[in-house]
Amino acid sequence: MEKKYLIKTYGCQMNEHDSERMSYILESLGYQSTDKLEEADLIIYNTCSVRENADNKVYGHLGSLKKLKEKNKDLIIAICGCMMELKEARDIIRDKYKHVDIVFGTKNINSIPYLLDQYNYSKERIIDVEETDDIDEIQDAIRKNQTSAYINIIYGCNNFCSYCIVPYTRGRESSRSEESILKEVKKLADDGFKEITLLGQNVNSYGKDLHPCTTFSDLLNKISLIEGIERIRFISSHPKDISDDLIFTIKSNPKVCKCIHLPIQSGSKRILKEMNRKYTKDEYLEKINKIKKEILDIAITTDIIIGFPGESEDDFLDTLDVINKVKYDQAFIFKYSKRTGTKAAIMDNQISEEVKSERFQILLDRVNDICLENNSKYLNREVKVLFDEISKTDKNMMSGRTDRNKIVHVKYNKDYLGKICSVMIKEFNSFALEGEIIER
Ligand code: SAH
Ligand code: SF4
Ligand code: F3S
């Protein structure tokens, strides 16, 4: 009988894509996917450590797997991802979660066949979180979405924002070779994918470490020459690294989507300095103005942290001011979460949960109002949507995105799934648009 696997993924798109790569490896070994825990012979938790609640969720779920393992002694439980790059988390797993059989790191995905063999042979717990400078150029994946695909272009981060654990979990920046990225995109185009999203903690750093060095804009332009790929997206960009060159590429290359995610984190000059973000509120706003001036109607999205140590009412008002000025199309707001090992974790003046919650709600309400106002402009307008998903909650509906990254829902029509088509917008809320396909 074929063995079954289940991967539970936490965290960002990078982890989602790592899970797609793991699926490919496991299915090559003969495993079949299942979404039922009781059926699985192998359960993998791909973890995130960016905020404390991400860690806690994993510990909660892992605890409940213990009973499953007692019932099925042959079940293999593995845990990987960013949490496992941190010694403290590995120690907790080692001491308190003895039913976990295999632990591996973010750079050891291609070792899965070997780890499984070794475990099956010895039946002893394996911990493989080896540091390696080699980057995985082998990136085969079974993708969840058959229209839009994620592609890693650069790993790691050199920025060391004072609150952030990512540089400790994903290591230093290292770019994949241009050749292997282009090969992968070509293959995706041949397989019928229409859209790709280039992934990196800071995509603007792409190519600086390659020999000969190259730029992110250059990569975008080369990818756009591949026939079949109709849309190119990318996340994330660090505001300090947005170059005129990149603004020009977004503006002039029709395949590059007119949307950009530019995390501000805070509007306060003082807090930004403490965060080690390397830009001021004014410099950020200047860049935004330039982008808006050059690229008509560009959609701008952001990440914001509230309650960073020492954040005063005035600092918070500065953040609110940026929101009012930029009028983001979407903003992900996070309560600051203390990450052991980062600089901010030992700063004085940690902010109380109460103040964080209060400020969080004020920002959220404001952001939702602005998004509603932005989306209202789409009413009775025609937009081009690439449909890539049947709704999970209502099988009669499907959804896709505009090149400005607006989510659009329409009635399910199989003829248009996987294609770009025109839609007349009839309804909207803060998060999405709804409309009707214009049949031509
Ligand atoms: N490299 C990306 C961000 C990756 S982490 C970038 O710089 O754009 C995604 C988001 O999580 C960050 O933008 C930040 O807003 C949030 N984040 C990171 N560390 C956090 C922490 N300790 N507490 C709360 N939010 C945090
Ligand atoms: Fe974290 Fe800053 Fe790097 Fe983004 S740029 S991953 S927030 S350290
Ligand atoms: Fe989380 Fe790692 Fe992504 S910490 S946000 S899964 S890079």
From TrEMBL:
Reply yes or no: does the keyword Nucleus apply. no
Chain sites annotated for binding [4Fe-4S] cluster 1: 12, 48, 82
**What are the Radical SAM core domain coordinates in residue numbering?**
143-373
Q: What is its EC number?
A: 2.8.4.3
Catalytic reactions on record? N(6)-dimethylallyladenosine(37) in tRNA + (sulfur carrier)-SH + AH2 + 2 S-adenosyl-L-methionine = 2-methylsulfanyl-N(6)-dimethylallyladenosine(37) in tRNA + (sulfur carrier)-H + 5'-deoxyadenosine + L-methionine + A + S-adenosyl-L-homocysteine + 2 H(+)
Listed under GO cellular component are:
cytosol
Recorded hits in CDD domains, A to Z, give: Radical_SAM
SUPFAM superfamilies hit by this protein: Radical SAM enzymes
Work out whether the entry's keyword set contains Iron-sulfur.
yes
Which cofactors, if any, are listed as required? [4Fe-4S] cluster
Molecular function (GO) terms listed?
4 iron, 4 sulfur cluster binding; metal ion binding; tRNA-2-methylthio-N(6)-dimethylallyladenosine(37) synthase activity
Q: Which residues form the TRAM domain?
A: 376-439
Q: Which cell locations does it reside in? A: Cytoplasm
Q: Which PANTHER family match?
A: CDK5 REGULATORY SUBUNIT-ASSOCIATED PROTEIN 1, MITOCHONDRIAL TRNA METHYLTHIOTRANSFERASE CDK5RAP1
The UniProt function text for this chain reads: Catalyzes the methylthiolation of N6-(dimethylallyl)adenosine (i(6)A), leading to the formation of 2-methylthio-N6-(dimethylallyl)adenosine (ms(2)i(6)A) at position 37 in tRNAs that read codons beginning with uridine.
Family named by the database record: Belongs to the methylthiotransferase family. MiaB subfamily.
Q: From the Swiss-Prot or TrEMBL record, give the protein name.
A: tRNA-2-methylthio-N(6)-dimethylallyladenosine synthase
